[in-house]
Write a structure and sequence with these properties.
The complex is a heterodimer of chains A (190) and B (507).
Chain A: H1 2-7, H2 11-27, H3 31-52, H4 68-84, H5 91-108, H6 110-122, H7 126-130, H8 139-169, H9 174-186
Helix pairs in contact in A: 2-3, 3-8, 4-5, 5-6
Chain B: H1 2-7, H2 10-14, H3 16-33, H4 37-65, E1 68-71, E2 82-85, H5 87-114, H6 117-139, H7 143-162, H8 170-200, H9 205-215, H10 219-235, H11 245-251, H12 254-279, H13 285-311, H14 316-336, H15 340-371, H16 382-385, H17 387-401, H18 407-422, H19 425-450, H20 456-459, H21 469-487, H22 489-504
Antiparallel strand pairs in B: 1-2
Helix pairs in contact in B: 3-4, 3-6, 4-5, 4-6, 5-6, 5-12, 5-15, 5-21, 5-22, 6-7, 6-12, 7-8, 7-12, 8-10, 8-11, 10-12, 11-12, 11-14, 12-14, 12-15, 13-14, 13-19, 14-15, 14-19, 15-17, 15-18, 15-21, 15-22, 17-19, 17-21, 18-19, 18-21, 21-22
The chains are: A mainly alpha (190), B mainly alpha (507).
Chain lengths: 190, 507
């Protein structure tokens, strides 16, 4: 049980942040605090995406075209990641670059290539055999850059609305807003 | 629609799916630079015409040649972003395009009345961004892209709803609440997409669907399903996630309400269908269970609860907003039947409801233009003071109830037939009871319009006997469509069946 939790340690802060954010959104009556909770909630999702892009022992995904070994390594990394069931998306980039290089390599060292091919089929430790270089999956980072922009835009619109609400009502507390609307509808004084 | 396709050089027709999104996005920037509202409107009008044209071209291409797959930037799917159009999203795309155009025609007088001059050009700019976002959600084949476009349309929608603050400051709080709930919904959706990405390593929806069928489902994909259903259900105003909708519709500018009611929830509902049928497969046990126990159940509850809430509203647009929630329930029920007949009835109701609610909110906009109508008691005597608009309102109101000779009857007929095929007597009973409740709330408004005598201040404005032509024309077209498509039902029914068959494979 403890092992299962420790293997997935990255999810613990994410879950805590997510629940805290959602709770703040629901529990507070202050419009600004509610936006704070919302941002916290969104940030936890950014973390979720970022952590699934991590491949253990992986380097930043920058291809060094000079070395065949590196490219082959990235090929292996792609498959290893897919084997983890967490980050298969990067075989996009890996495949397109690595295929011609792997072919050339096969011409030079046929036997070695066959050995590697069987490793790829096995999936697991191909990257370690192929070379030292193992890459993390860059795609989640790209996605989250977009999501961060979306989050910033939402926060900006939200804060602008709070400013306008404060101008129109003179309060940013839920209770005050409800009371003001209720009084106006029933003709009472504000 | 082949003649539309033939109007274009073949190279341009090929790029129609991309142009549908690109044109409004670029035009939004142009509209923002316009010095006054009238020029802003002209930009919006030209854009909406082009969008409607290209969306019909796409529909024509899909109906004649089948699936279109457009590779953005030349990158092959599943690695690049794919615009993937089959009959289902082609129909929704054309619906959004055409309703967008009709609403923009209506916008000139309505927006001129409700929004201060200095902000009109920016308002049209935000509207165009919202339009681009909705079209993007409809046309893209990439799951993360759906999220991005959903947020593009939502964020601009928050701003244009808040523009109603000039008339009623409650537009601000309505917009704020929509922002909070909408963002929670979108974040839930993106969590679900993240889980799917973990499980499959792909973001292309067709590709995810294929991988899931090969490798089967596990707890991760089940969690993804739950998150995605909640996220999209919130956007589609699925009961009980609809609480943002009534206030947003009631306090937004009339033009915005007409546009949103006929497009926004429809697009979210489409995205839900896409995920249920193309990404998750309806044969998978937990998806099949969710049809009966989530969508059909929630649909029936929405029909009952939201209809009865509508009866007791005093604000005319709030009443119609609750009615919208109930109508989403009809669509959910059709979807929940899980059969091709049920889904096509649901899609038919989606199209019909867009036509009805667009016309009803335009008519209320016409009343508001002259007499500042907001409450139901303000409707008194409008049958005498504004007979043309009141007549259109009456036709469409009866269509909403489902009276024969209107399209409301057609879609309810198909829903009931599909329910009987499935042996769901309780669903038929629910449909009939909910229609009776619709009769009650529509009759409240119609009796105010035709039976009551007009208040005195109406007489002070004898020139206001009919609304401007910019309002009458789109409203008249929609009201006429409500009658026309009853007699030529095969047009819309054919589209709905093609759309349903595209995702169910016809069984």
């Amino acid at each position: 049980m403890l092992d299962i939790i420790l293997e997935r340690f990255n999810y613990i802060p994410i879950i805590i942040l997510m629940m805290t954010g959602l709770y703040v959104v629901i529990a507070t009556g202050n419009l600004v605090k509610r936006l704070v909770g919302l941002s916290l909630f969104q940030t936890s999702v950014f973390l979720l995406y970022i952590t699934i892009g991590k491949v253990f022992g992986g380097q930043p995904p920058i291809l060094d075209g000079a070395h065949h070994g590196d490219e082959e390594g990235s090929h292996g990394a792609g498959y290893a990641a897919a084997g983890h069931g967490e980050a298969g998306g990067d075989h996009a980039a890996a495949d397109s670059h690595a295929e011609p290089a792997a072919d050339a390599h096969a011409g030079d060292h046929a036997a070695e290539a066959v050995e590697h091919a069987s490793d790829y089929a096995a999936g697991a430790d191909a990257a370690h055999h192929a070379s030292e270089v193992l890459y993390s999956n860059p795609l989640p980072h790209v996605l989250i850059l977009t999501a961060i922009v979306v989050g910033v835009a939402t926060l900006a619109v939200g804060l602008a609305l709070v400013v306008r609400i404060r101008e129109a009502y003179g309060t940013i507390e839920d209770d005050g807003l409800n009371a003001a609307d209720y009084n106006r509808e029933t003709g009472g004084s504000e | 629609m082949d003649f539309l396709v033939n109007l274009l050089p073949s190279g341009l027709a090929h790029h129609a799916p991309a142009l549908v999104i690109v044109i409004p996005l670029v035009a939004a920037a142009v509209a923002a630079l316009m010095p006054n509202g009238r020029l802003g409107w002209i930009v919006a009008m030209v854009t909406a015409s082009l969008v409607a044209f290209f969306s019909l071209v796409v529909l024509g291409l899909v109906l004649s040649d089948g699936l279109i797959s457009y590779h953005m930037g030349g990158w092959e799917p599943p690695y690049g972003i794919e615009l993937r159009v089959d009959a289902l999203n082609a129909v929704v795309l054309a619906l959004v395009g055409v309703m967008g155009l009709l609403c923009v025609i209506f916008a000139l007088p309505s927006v001129g009345d409700e929004i201060e001059e200095g902000k009109q050009a920016l308002f049209y700019s935000a509207f165009l961004v919202a339009l681009a976002g909705l079209l993007g959600v409809t046309i893209t084949g990439d799951a993360f892209n759906v999220f991005v476009f959903l947020e593009i349309s939502s964020i601009s929608t928050y701003t244009i709803i808040a523009m109603g603050a000039g008339k009623d400051r409650r537009a601000l709080t309505a917009s704020y609440n929509y922002l909070i709930l909408g963002t929670i919904g979108a974040t839930f959706f993106v969590i679900g997409v993240g889980f799917l990405y973990m499980a499959t390593g792909s973001l292309n929806m067709a590709d995810i669907g294929q991988i899931l069928q090969e490798q089967g489902h596990n707890r991760v994909t089940q969690a993804a399903f739950a998150f995605i259903v909640v996220g999209l259900g919130l956007k589609a105003a699925m009961f009980p996630l609809h609480v943002w909708l009534p206030n947003a519709y009631a306090f937004a500018p009339n033009f915005v309400t007409a546009f949103l009611a006929s497009t926004a929830t429809k697009v979210a509902f489409y995205a839900l269908i896409r995920f249920l049928f193309s990404v998750f497969h309806p044969d998978v046990a937990f998806v099949e269970l969710s049809f009966t126990w989530v969508f059909a159940a929630v649909g029936v509850i929405a029909m009952m609860v939201a209809s009865s809430q509508a009866i007791f509203q005093t604000d005319a647009r709030r009443l119609l907003a609750y009615s919208s929630v109930a109508q989403v329930g009809y669509m959910m029920l059709g979807l929940g039947m899980g059969t091709a007949a049920g889904l096509s009835a649901g899609i038919l109701h989606l199209i019909n409801h867009a036509i009805m609610k667009g016309a009803l909110f335009m008519a209320l906009g016409a009343f508001a233009l002259h007499f500042g109508v907001r409450q139901i008691r303000d409707l008194n005597g409008l049958g005498r003071t504004m007979p043309a608009s009141a007549g259109a309102f009456t036709i469409v109101g009866l269509s909403l109830v489902g009276v024969p000779l209107t399209i409301g009857f057609t879609s309810k007929w198909y829903l009931i037939t599909a329910a009987l095929e499935r042996g769901w007597w309780w669903a038929v009973a629910a449909l009939i009871i909910s229609s009776l409740m619709a009769l009650a709330y529509v009759a409240r408004m119609l009796s105010a319009i035709w039976m009551e005598s007009p208040p005195e201040h109406h007489a002070a404005k004898p020139a206001a006997r009919h609304a401007p032509y910019m309002v009458l024309v789109p409203m008249g077209i929609l009201a006429f469509a409500n009658l026309y498509f009853f007699f030529h039902a095969d047009v819309l029914v054919g589209l709905a069946e093609a759309a349903a068959n595209a995702v169910t494979g016809g069984h």
